[in-house]
Amino acid sequence: MLLDYISRLSRYEPRLRRFLGSKNSSEREPVQAFMGGRSGSATPTPIPPTQTGPESHHGGGGFSVIDIERWVLAKVWGSDSTPAARSSPSREDSQGLDVDLSELFARSATVADVKSAVEASATPAASRRFLNYYSKEALIEALGTTGILAALEKKGYKHPALVFDTSDSFQHRLSLVDASLFKPELHLSSSESFLIDLYMKRRRSWGTDQMVCYQVMTRELTGEIRAPYVGLEGAREVISFFETSVPKYSKLAKKGGGEWDVSELAWMQMHDPFATTTRPLLPGQRFPGLGLGRQIGKIMEGMAEHSKVTDALLNFPFHYHNAVAYEALGYKHFCPVYSAYFQWFHHQLQPTIEAHGFCFVAWAVSMGHVRRITEQLEPGGHWTKISNRLERWSASEQVFVTGPGPQAFLGCSEWERIRSKYREILWRDGAANMEGVSVVEPEAGAVRRSTLQVDLEGCPELWQYSTIWSKRDPETGNFQ
Questions:
Q1: Of the candidates 118, 132, 147, 100, which has an alpha carbon nearest to the alpha carbon of residue 30?
Q2: pLDDT tens, 168-179?
Q3: Exposure winner among 10, 44, 116, 429, fewest CB in 10 A?
Q4: Is the pTM of this model over 0.85?
Q5: Exposed / middle / buried, residue 295 (Cβ in 10 Å: 0-12, 13-18, 19+)
């Protein structure tokens, strides 16, 4: 599980590699577009004009996904359409699959010139469902009823289309794109030509062996790692709790059989390439967000709740601001100790957030400018600094509960007891005296405390994100 997340981080921005790299090309959509000599087409899934809200929306109805796929395959594998030629990309060019799709529309000066979508053929591949459960029609309807399509049209995206990639048996991809993003004069790369890009996995048997928070605790005991939020005592307590409670509450799984079925948000990015706002970007952003995160979250949550098998939505936040955003949407940290630590972490940074803004602190966490200051009370009554070390961002699973099993687990008295215990410890002294967390073991009777602070003097490159900097007079250099 840990290696899975590490490998995902190494390819931090998923490109078209997974879309193109599957050896089983017969599972791609559309299946008949590439079978030598065969005719036929497959689902392009344009968004119908009537589903975008305002009556003034008209036009070509989107573009054909077949055109994209034909062009991509010709670009990557050449003109040879034999199965052997397209079975897999070259090993020597494993990193060269970031194909620029803009040439597909190079012959179209305006959106009106983009080809209209072709009719779908009734092929098995075309009817594949996202995570083997959600149909394109259901997702398009949800985008319309929640007002997302109407909101996108107001932003200038009038020809959206929904693209599925279900060729990978373990991870599916959903992309919401717009024809206007493929104009050659925009110079957007293939990793930027989308509005929403979502990768999800369905974990049919989510147990302790797949839980990162549990694996962290076991490695804490062996000394392989030292998590900043838990000591040896806490690791033993959490391990014991998980090993008794996870099997117990897994019996309440929606599908039965004693195993939780969860849908993991392996990657999701939403951005607005046409945005003109001067608001600073958060870590990981190349363009400002769409401002539709809550609506998109409601769609996923609603479908998971109505699912007959999904017990929870699972998220592993790459950044601090992601964890804050998901918590605001109702996601809850699965580990009780980490839940207490995250609340303390956010509370400690609150003064800096109030002074410099959330974006500034998000960058400080991402760039490694948060320090844990440990002090010891001396006989004279003054505090002496004994440690000043980096506090790295440590992520842990967040879940949005949609089934009775995880709900009972997170709501049980033992989970709350452990969370409350370590919340009290962190609020009291920042766990400065906890075994495995403190840098130097304290002497008997010693009093210590730990706090988190942003190293304001050591992060000059981040001042551009501060709300204070925005009040600076560019001519005099003075602050208003």
A1: 118
A2: 878 889 899 998
A3: 10
A4: no
A5: middle
